[in-house]
Structures are given as C-alpha cells and as structure tokens.
TrEMBL record:
Residues 3-91 form the DUF4064 domain. Keywords: Membrane, Transmembrane, Transmembrane helix. This is Membrane protein. It comes from the Bacteria.
Length: 119
C-alpha cells in the first residue's frame, strides 16, 4: 500500500485554510462587502449575501477535510471530490479561495494520478 502522506498534508492545509477563510467571511464579510463582492463571480441574491458565501465555504472546507482524512482508503474517489470542491469553489467564492483551491486540487490530482512504486 502506498503512503499518501503528501495528499493528506496538502488536503489538510487546504481545508483548514478554507475553514479559516469561511469563518473570516462570516464574521467580517459585512464590513468588507465591497472587497468580497469584488472577488466573487456570482451576482444577484446569492452573490450579495456575504454570510451565505462564508457558510458555503465552511461546508465545502469541512467536506474537503473529511475527503483529505479518507484519501488513504480510496485515493481516486476522494481525490475526485477534492478536485471538484477545489474547482467549484473558485466559481462560488472567487479569489479568496485561491490558496485552498490550489492545495485541494493538487492533493486531489495526486490522489487520482499518483501510481505506486513497483517493488
């Protein structure tokens, strides 16, 4: 069985940074509405609700945390989920997700494509 420490570490860091960003948006988003909306790709009711964007970020980050913790059991399945969360959240939250998104996408792609060393 191949060690998936790198995927686990990248996924954990990405999801924890995402959780921090989500709670930051929830707590301080109303004070920084113009900043948040500048970096959000959504417009209309959903894009205008800063707290909603924060909660979506928190839920997605929590799901990414679970996927990161379980990536050793099924690397391809959980890796696909990490990639989907990483990409989808760029469109939902925008550039505030850049660090989390890149780390989660890397962890997911490594889980999907990394092949065990032949011994």
């Amino acid at each position: 069985m191949m060690s998936r420490k790198i995927e686990l570490i990248l996924g954990l860091i990405g999801s924890i940074v995402g959780l921090i960003a989500g709670f930051w948006i929830i707590n301080y988003g109303n004070d920084l509405t113009n900043y948040i909306q500048t970096f959000t790709y959504l417009s209309g009711t959903f894009g205008d609700e800063v707290a909603t964007l924060g909660w979506v970020t928190v839920v997605a980050s929590a799901l990414a945390l679970v996927a990161s913790l379980l990536i050793k059991k099924n690397p391809r399945g959980w890796g696909v989920l990490l990639v989907l969360i990483g990409i989808l959240m760029f469109f939902v939250v925008g550039q505030i997700w850049i660090v989390s998104g890149i780390l989660l996408i890397l962890a997911g792609l490594m889980g999907i494509f990394r092949v065990p060393n032949p011994r």
